[in-house]
Amino acid sequence: xxxxxxxxxxxxxxxxxxxxxxxGALDRAREADSGDVPLHxxxxxETEEGEAAEGSLAxxxxxxxxxxxxxxxxxxxxxxxxxxxxxxxxxTVVRKLRAAGGWVLGKTNMDxxxxxxxxxxxxxxxxxxxRDRARVPGGSSGxxxxxxxxxxxxxxxxxxTGGSVRQPAAFCGVVGIKPTYGRVSRYGLVAFASSLDQxxxxxxxxxxxxxxxxxxxxxxxxxxxxxxxxxxxWAASFGVGVDGLTIGVPAEYFTEELDPAVAEVCRExxxxxxxxxxxxxxxxxxxxxxxxxxxxxxxxxxxxSNLARYDGVRYGVRAPGAESIDAVYEESRTRGxxxxxxxxxxxxxxxxxxxxxxxxxGRAQRVRALIARDFRRVWADGVxxxxxxxxxxxxxxxxxxxxxxxAMYLSDIYTVTANLAGIPGISIPIGAVExxxxxxxxxxPMWDEARMIQAAxxxxxxxxxxxxxxxxxxxxxxxx
Amino acid sequence: MPETPxxxxxxxxxxxxAEEMEAVIGLEIHVQxxxxxxxxxxxxxxxxxxxxxxxxxxxxxxxxxxPTINEEAVDLAVRAAVxxxxxxxxxxxxxxxxxxxxxxxxxxxxxQFERPLATGGSFRVRMDDGESVVRIRRIHMEEDAGKSxxxxxxxxxxxxxxxxxxxxxxxxxxxxxTSPAQAxxxxxxxxxxxxxxxxxxxxxxxxxxxxxxxxxxxxxxxTTLETKTEVKNMNSFSGVEKALTTEIARQMEVTAxxxxxxxxxxxxxxxxxxxxxxxxxxxxxxxxxxxxxDLPPLRLGxxxxxxxxxxxxELPASRADRFVAExxxxxxxxxxxxxxxxxxxxxxxxxxxxxxAKSASNxxxxxxxxxxxxxxxxxxxxxxxxxxxxxxxDLVEGDTISxxxxxxxxxxxxxxxxxxxxxxxxxxLVQVRDSDRIEAWVDEVLxxxxxxxxxxxxxxxxxxxxxxxxxxxxxxxxxxxxxxxRLLARKLEG
Lengths: 480, 494
Description:
Chain A is α/β, with parallel strands linked by helices. Chain A has 14 helices and eleven strands. Chain A has a domain at 3-237 and 392-401 and 423-477: Amidase signature (AS) enzymes. In chain A, 34% of the residues lie in helices and 13% in strands. In chain A, strand 10 (425-433) and strand 11 (436-443) form a beta hairpin. In chain B, helix 1 crosses helix 5 and helix 11 (386-397) runs antiparallel to helix 12. Chain B has 17 helices and 16 strands. Classes of the chains: A alpha/beta, B alpha+beta.
């Protein structure tokens, strides 16, 4: 039984107070920040009560990424420009998780506006990797991944635009799911790149991440890009196994960028899947190598527009003493945005400029369509799910890539394709390299999270590489 | 450039220019759609509310808020597009128009760019000297921005976002207009059609109809388009005509002096009667349009488009034609009576009840329109219903009351809302045709005015009207005017 289910069961049975596990989580969160090298998973640490006393998440503390709007806790997106900003409305996913009995436990640190792969681009402070505090937790949902990996909470919400849930899940040794684009409402998720953004879940186990995702999924009339289609009961995928499943292994994901030790862990995973009855076969996704450049045209282009509203006029930082409206814009934005955000706004503005639009944005959209077609061909060819590494390397050290944006961008090389194609992906721990967790990723056709969860759940039980040993959210009281 | 009129001399050159050159004008009309709710959120579109009260996270552009489409606004936009003969596209795409402005909360306006709602329509403009066709290039949907208020606070600009997100259509003509007067006629007639369609209330003062013009000049007969300027801030029909006249004269002057017209945006200053540059091409925006990722493409089923087409009301031009052809009205009457849909409906109802179009037309074009003007109401809320007016006309045509008494009764009906019969009865206004009673009034008048009678008999025949008026006055308007005239003639001549 997952931590989520057990907490919900005990709370609903009246065995403990409603906030019993929430208090324990608060204590553990404070504890994690108290040592010589604080974890800094959270930007704000207060609770927002569950709305219902019963439900699949009754009494479950859920950490929420700081780009998801909450009514009481600030929503800064890890940016100075929104320092202290409190949203007057609640994101649909937060409303749903509270309706299912879940409690918001703090807002988690992130790369500013979700732009980054290490959480070092936070406008406030970096988050550490609970497995090795000299290393990054990945990003941009690094705070959420660290909170789960440190055993503070059994599950957390993140957002995934190019791998921002799956890559930190891999780095921290937890499970991260990016659902199909349109499966979860984006209403109240502060936009980075609207056509790629999707709220995702992180959990200590496949079940925890799945149960949280189940609670927040579904059509939302407030989000025109959310799909009006039924959400299956994904718990039905647990324990089904992989016997008879066809698992594709894309050759393009096993190239020179991939750390050989990570590749070896992946090979062991294939063997286990094969032994469990899956047909594992190599496939080709020929446009994969264009994914990162395509992503770094489209995402910054949308971001340059989405971030225009932070102009110092209505909310957030306004530079004092600005003498003209242009000065208000320039000084507020210069003061409020960090270097990576500025870089992407510049890139995106350029890509959309008159005379360059077709060469950059237009072309990137066409390549995006080809990447999506690659996947459709593989599914049409009888492949049920794909299996790949989540990231080319395990977690790197703080500061190791901060001066080399391209090296940083390459840590998303295996995850951006799912966002470009709109398909779901899940990262689960599949082993370790020198004590650092290694994540493996399953990708599935649009709307077929069930198959992906089925495969991930099976592999999780086969490898036994479940998050643990650092903290257990089920533990009660104040001991960490 | 046309032949460069270098070194031409002052006014002579300009006069010659005016003969040799023609204006090329295209209008962009922004029309606010008549919906209760905004285009992408449910806030009210009501005009005149306290600042920043009709707002929500969506139209404030708060982080995390997302737009959703108002289908009623889409229907209105489609209705306008089919009425103007446009090809309505089954798929159109919203796009972001990016620019920074304090009253633009998201830093972009949601509009349509590469794939608008509709393209390729046309419109017949009627003027005294004939009819011409203006092609409609496109009609697209977009949201309005908020309002910057510069005069409310000292040394500060205030922003009111009540208007932000109000649904608009932008209605772009091809540059087919050739004179300010024609541009004005086009605008007036387009406005009339849009009002007919109930797509917008077209209130220029409240900004629900705004117009910008693109203007250039070229040698008469040329078909090339020269460098154009954009003229904004024309807030009335006469303003459009004056602003265009002024700008065309300015371009003529520049060209006559050997200069070249520069591409720029100009503001019309109604008070000073001049156009002022707002921004030049160098400072012009790159709007960085791209498809709006928060909204799926707008898909309209053929059925929906055809249903909206089938529900179109009869438009003013064809209605006027029908009034002429079927009801036998003069062209002028037909034009006046179709000025608004409500007026035309009113006329038709009166004519139908009486089975006589001409008398209905006479009454409405005369006393009724005058009364409407007096009380400041239009046919939609005029207090005399069509049936009541028809009853009044029956009383006059049936000689129960005189025409003049009828006009007075109409005024009372407007004031009190009573029916004509009630007023006539209470005030004893039934026309008197009894010769004896009329003769008595005539005698009283003639006896009371011996001098005038003498002058009349001495040849001042125009005093006939004076006696007539006096007799009618004495009868409190009730005397049958025909009988009065007959008796007066007999007594004065005889």
